[in-house]
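Dig into my protein:

:::
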Amino acid sequence: MFRSANLSQPEKVQRESQRHPLLSDNDINTILVNGAQMSLSKLKRARSFNARIYYYAEIGVYLEVSLSRGAGITDATREQLEQIHKDATHIHMNANKQLALKS
């Protein structure tokens, strides 16, 4: 194991420039879309209003995170998340209508 205290300044700069991040830009895009898709499938199976609103909120968070600039999130990812959010809105609202009709 290297100790950073023993490295000279140029060695520190060189070592920092050679670091590889754990996540690439593509990874964050995949994580956001897959997370939103999992929440959408859970929303479809939810049996209670509280569960539906929870998963709907999760999808909203994924969409909101995608709006961050400079995070390496592509426009294609934003579009996918917007479509997932739109689908979730329809599912959630239709379930609420069905619940209101039963009452």
Remarks:
- The first helix runs from residue 9 to 17.
- Residues 97 and 103 are 10 Å apart (CA to CA).
